[in-house]
Input
Amino acid sequence: MPHTKRRRLVTTALSVALGATTLAACGSGDDSTSGSGPVSLTYWTWTPGMDKVVDLWNKGPGRKDRITVTVKKQASGDTLVTKILTAHKAKKAPDLVQAEYQALPTLVSNDALADISQQVGDIKGKFADGVWQQTTLGTKAVYAVPQDIGPMMFYYRADLFEKYGLTVPTTWEQFAQTARQLKKKAPDKDLTTFSANDSGLFAGLAQQAGARWWTASGGKWKVAIDDTATRKVAAFWGGLVKEGVIDNQPMYTPAWNKALDTGKQLAWVSAVWAPGTLATAAPDTKGKWAMAPLPQWSATEDVTGSWGGSSTAVTTDSAHKEAAAKFAAWLNTDHDALNALAKDGGIYPASTSAQLSGAFSNPPDYFSNQADFYTRAADIAKTTAPSAWGPNVNVAYTSFNDAFGSAAKNKSDFAAALKKMQDDTVADMKKQGFEVSR
Amino acid sequence: MSSLALRKAAPAAGTTPGTAQGPPLRRRIALVPTVTLLIGAIYTLLPVAWVVIASTKSGHELFSTFTFLPGTGFTQNIKDLNAYRGGVYWTWMGNSALYAGLGALLSTAVSAFSGYALATYRFRGRETIFNVLLAGVLMPPVILAVPQYLLLAKANLTDSYLSVLLPQILSPYGVYLARIYSAAAVPADVVEAGRMDGASEWRIFTRIALPMMIPGMVTVFLFQFVAIWNNFLLPFIMLSDDEKFPLTLGLYTLLEQGSNTPALYTLVITGGFLAVLPLIALFLVVQRFWSLDLLSGAVKS
Output
């Protein structure tokens, strides 16, 4: 067949179509502006109702300083960390991001978060030391402002504890005894479950026992997931599962919801945000639950771990770091902002003064029977043990889900699972190029 | 030689032309295949049934009543979904319709042009282009999402409607299907006859070839529509403004609200149920185009 001009045209058209995506890349440039004048910031957050809180800023202090913040609501979790890092690769990360504490080292080691120690001013005193230390990663820098925290607590069915003659355990030893007593009195019921799908819970329990999973010194990381404290925690829960006195089914499943709602499970080791979860998981048992401090490893101790909680950070891509830091500080220390965050966002504030103010003078609706819920919560929050997160928490968590998942299901040795978690984490850090000391 | 093989493969590619060879034979129902298919059907339909039934349950009933017992909360769920953040769900639905509708239409057009060109014209590099396309078919779109993001970021197009539309317009699978279909459905004789009669190439394509290719193009359209409607990763990486989110992404934000806020299960399930309806409607409407196949042949051989 001869080549006609028209055919050539079709050929060209085709190659243009094929190259369309490449061509689209040939645009240009950043439009970052600097200097004074009106500033507009974008903020990635998953907190419900954050747009209302930000409205307070835009109409109040933000208007005075000509700093406007726009909320772009995101889904929470590890996927958001990935998304922030992808955007950062293109230098397109938003000015402000919400980040869970355990994600901060990952973001910092990828150079995604700016050091705002110069810009946030003197706000350190507004937070508990253990909380603040998570945003500095043990350095002089400040990478985020704490927003909410999740001090861990023990939740139990007060009515059923009475019915079966159980007392609220104050030590883990008593906790095990309580589980055994219940199994004897009501074989079809369980005190609680060990869920192998929630690494955050296990991390919090290990933290309470004194574990420091990641520590850095002299440019080297030390991973101590398989340390004495964590081994103690793993052996304790593994023993209970093996003994058959607690359940081994995962949490947050329809079956788990049902078990809580029907009283098949009598207790839940959780954190301060549990009332919200219980309200959807076990709507029929409202007012029958009570909260107590987490059982301790020895009767003389008074510490708790944390499960959840997040912070507000400024990215290195932001062209207006000072303005962004100003907003982050306002959001998490201002009285009105925190009140709105509690009311519209349902968060439990990291700021110690806010924990007893306005929104927290009454107990949560689900716990209307426990008038001093938030007073006790604030006391418990003070006892939070320091935590130590590393740059690959997500890998450790995935490994936890795999290893502990099968160990809980087969009622096999938790120590081996812990060893695997340690090995996987160290191997990944070495692969990523971190120096890891033994 | 390769075109011969392609010709043979054509009927399998998404269409069912009438290849009746003699009168149909009455056969006994083969037990094993029938049972296997039935199990397969139950396996695929059961989750759908679950969604339909679960969407009728109120939050209160969702986990406490028997799984396949219809609940009483359907209208309330719809109302709640309507009320959630000022009806943002319907914005997401509109966005999904835009991404999938316009995206699939453009993608089908590009596929038709390119597929016809690849099938009809001989030019240098034709086989190379086709081989690259084949490689593209094998490449899961998932791994392209991040590079595409970095590319569009350079053009300052991220977080825009275009950022989701552009990468989906070129579908290697669509072009591949269009080429195969065009090779099978548009006989070279017909194109040649058109040229003899003095029709321009454009006219031959639009007036003669395209009508013959319609059943194949409907298939490409449907494939692309469903693929874009269900796509998660690309919009997830591209978009940060939730007013531009498609349904998949919007529902995901309802599910992942952070540890201190419970997931909005009833809203997600009801939203998921409503999100399937347009797809079902589309299939019912477009299905009749497939039967055109039997009538649209130009030459009998």
About this structure: The CA atoms of residues 122 and 329 of chain A lie 10 Å apart. Strands of chain A lie at 39-45, 67-73, 96-100, 145-157, 214-217, 220-223, 267-271, 289-293, 306-314, 436-437. Confidence is low (pLDDT under 50) at residues 1-35 of chain A.
